[in-house]
Amino acid sequence: MSDFIVYLDTSEVRPGKLGELKAAMQDLARFVEVNEPRIIAYDVYFSADGTRMSVLHVHTDVPSLEFHLKVAGPRFPPIAPLVQLRTIEIFGAVTEELAKQLEAKTQLLGGTVIIHDLHAGFARVPAA
């Protein structure tokens, strides 16, 4: 079993905001890459028709996701008017404090938090 945390949020793109949102998410992805060395992956996806956005990140452990919310969190409010958050799904065990932080994010952006506990499995990470 692994300590990895996988985060997936899904939002509806507000009408007329796709271009602005794509630019904002490009900036956010660059910021995360530069400022969060422990994050394994941070990817932004848009549906073919541009009405839905999904953000997927993979963290080495809970502290990595907590650090992401602390460091990137101040960059979320300007994105709020561009989307309607539907879900934040977390795959892996989280602390009570992290669950509260995720709930706070839904207070800002809307949506619900769904936490999936790991039952079985493993993770392979290529040697650096």
Indicate the topology.
Blueprint: E1 5-13, H1 18-35, E2 41-46, E3 52-59, H2 62-72, E4 83-91, H3 96-109, E5 112-116
Parallel strand pairs: 4-5
Antiparallel strand pairs: 1-3, 1-4, 2-3
Tell me what the structure shows.
The protein is of the alpha+beta class. The chain has a single domain, classed as Alpha-Beta Plaits. 34% of the residues lie in helices and 29% in strands. The chain has three helices and five strands; from the N terminus they run E-H-E-E-H-E-H-E. It has a five-stranded mixed beta sheet. The longest helix is centred in the N-terminal third of the chain and has 18 residues. It is globular and about 40 Å long.
Question: Low-confidence parts, pLDDT < 50 over ≥5 residues?
Answer: none
Structural class: alpha+beta
CATH fold annotation: Alpha-Beta Plaits
- Proportion of beta-strand residues: 25-35%
CATH structural architecture: 2-Layer Sandwich
Supply the number of helical segments.
3
The spatial strand order of the largest sheet comes to: 2-3-1-4-5
Main sheet attributes: strand count, strand direction, barrel closure: 5 strands, mixed
Span from first to last CA?
21 Å
Whole-angstrom Rg: 14 Å
CATH hierarchy, class? Alpha Beta
Mean pLDDT across all amino acids: 92
